[in-house]
Amino acid sequence: MKLLCCIFISISIVWADDSGLRYEKDKVCEQLHAMGQPKFKELFIAVYSQKFPNSTLEEVMCLAEEMLKLGEKCCAEGAAADCYDKGATEISDKSCQADSPFPKHPGISKCCAKADVHERKVCLASLHYPADELPSLLEPTNEEMCQDFTQDRIGYSSRYVYELARRHRSVPVGLVLNATGIQTQILEKCCTPTASTPCFLSERFQGRQFNILLRFTSNHCNNNVNLKSYKDGLTAYYGSILNISFEKAQPMVQDFQAGLSKCCLQPNPECLMQKFTTFQQVICNDRYPDECCKSSRAPWNTVLCVQGLKRTTRPPPDTPPTTALCQQDNHNATERFLFEIGARAVHSSLPVISTALSKIKEEVKACCSDPDFQACMTKEDGHVAKATAFLTKSEEICSKYKTLDFPSFKAM
Ligand SMILES: *[C@@H]1O[C@H](CO)[C@@H](O)[C@H](O)[C@H]1NC(C)=O
Ligand SMILES: *[C@@H]1O[C@H](CO)[C@@H](O)[C@H](O)[C@H]1NC(C)=O
Ligand SMILES: *[C@@H]1O[C@H](CO)[C@@H](O)[C@H](O)[C@H]1NC(C)=O
Ligand SMILES: *[C@@H]1O[C@H](CO)[C@@H](O)[C@H](O)[C@H]1NC(C)=O
C-alpha cells in the first residue's frame, strides 16, 4: 500500500502518534467539525506553509484544498471506513509525481522511492528545510492593505497566513492564525470607509504585544530546532543571568528546553504557554521578586524581561579539563565544562554561545579518543581554540556595542 505522502509530511509531525492512521483521521475530522471549512483550510495553509516555506502560495493552497476535500468527503456520516486512507493515498501518489501541483521539496523523490511503508513515513515526516531566513516582508501602506483586503478578504487572509507561517516555521500554527485574526480585525475596523490613520495607530498599538509574543516564541522555537547544543547554551545563559551554579541551572533549563521540543510543533499554543508559566514560576520563586516577576506580566513576558537583565560575570574555572570529561558514567562533566565556558560569555547572544559550545563539545568527544587528551584540547589551531577565540571576539564586540553610542561603534 502506498502511504499518505503529503498528509504525512505535515500531520505526522503535528498529530500522528504510534497509533497511526485511525488517530490521524480522527484528529483531522475533529478539527474540521470544530473549526468549520474556512478556518480548517486556513489551518492547513499555515501547516503547509511552515513545512514548505519555499513553495508558492498556489501550491500550498492546492494541497490545503485537497485536504479540505478529503475531510469533507470522508468525515461525513456514512463515509466508507477506508475512505480517508484511500483518499490520502491518492494525494500521496499525486505529490510523488514530477508534475504535481503540490509543494516541491528537494527530498521528496528520495522518500517516494522507498518501498518500505514505514521507512517512507519516517523519511517524509523528517523532511525539513534548512534554517534560511526569507527576506522580511515589506509592509505595504495602509491604503494598499485596505484595498487588497476589501477586494478579496479571504484571499488576503490566505496570503497573510502563508507569508507569516513560512517566516515562523517552528511555532505552533495557532499563533500564526491568531496573528492573522488580529490583522484582519484591524483591517475590518480601520478600512471603512477609507483607511483611517488614527485607527491604525491605536489598533496596532493594541496588537503590539502579540507581535512581540510571536517573535519571541519564534526565536525560542527556531533556536531549539536549528542550534546544536542549544540546551548547553541555555544552561550557561541562565547561569549567568540568574547567577546560579550549574547544579541549579541544569535541571531548571532541562525542563524548559524539553518543553520547547515538545510544544513548539504542536498546532495549539497552549502547551507552549504552559511551559512559559512553569518556567516563570521557577525563575520567580527562586530569586527574583522584582520587576520581571510582577504579577501583571504574562509568563512569556517574564522570560523576555529576565533575558534583558544584566548577566553576572564569574571568576575563571580553577582546573583545566581532564580526561574525566571522557568517562561515560560521568556524563554531566562535559556539560559542566561547557557551562563554565558559556556562563562567562556575558555579552554574547544565545545563538553565538550555543554555536561555540557545540564546536567545543564535538572536540571534547574527538579528543577523548586521542591518546594525548590535553594536547588535543589545547591544539593551537584546534576547534577549542577557534571556538574560544570566536567567543572572546564576540564578547569584545558585543560589550562595545552595549557601551558605546552608535556613531562611535560604527566608526570602530
Ligand atoms: C529557499 O528560499 C531561500 C530564499 O529565497 C533560498 O535562500 C534557499 O536556498 C531556498 N532553499 C531551497 C532548499 O530551495
Ligand atoms: C488565539 O485565539 C484563540 C481563539 O480565538 C484564543 O482562544 C486564544 O486565547 C488566542 N491565543 C493567544 C495566545 O492569544
Ligand atoms: C553571584 O553569586 C556569587 C556566589 O553565590 C556571589 O558571591 C556574588 O555576590 C553574586 N553576584 C551578584 C552580582 O549577585
Ligand atoms: C545529569 O544531569 C541531569 C539533570 O540534572 C540528571 O537527570 C542526570 O541524571 C545527570 N546524569 C548523570 C550521569 O549524572
From TrEMBL:
Gene3D superfamilies in UniProt: 1.10.246.10
Presence of the UniProt keyword Transport in the record: yes
Cellular localisation: Secreted
InterPro entries assigned: ALB/AFP/VDB (IPR000264), Serum_albumin-like (IPR020858), Serum_albumin_N (IPR014760), VitD-bd (IPR000213)
Domain Albumin: 16-209
SMART domains: ALBUMIN
A Pfam family: Serum_albumin
Main location: secreted
GO cellular component annotations of the record: extracellular region
This protein's UniProt keywords: Actin-binding, Disulfide bond, Repeat, Secreted, Signal, Transport, Vitamin D
Keyword rRNA-binding applies: no
Signal sequence extent: 1-16
GO molecular function (one): vitamin D binding
Protein function: Involved in vitamin D transport and storage, scavenging of extracellular G-actin, enhancement of the chemotactic activity of C5 alpha for neutrophils in inflammation and macrophage activation.
Quaternary structure and partners: Associates with membrane-bound immunoglobulin on the surface of B-lymphocytes and with IgG Fc receptor on the membranes of T-lymphocytes. Interacts with LRP2; the interaction is required for renal uptake of GC in complex with 25-hydroxyvitamin D3.
Protein name per its UniProtKB record: Vitamin D-binding protein
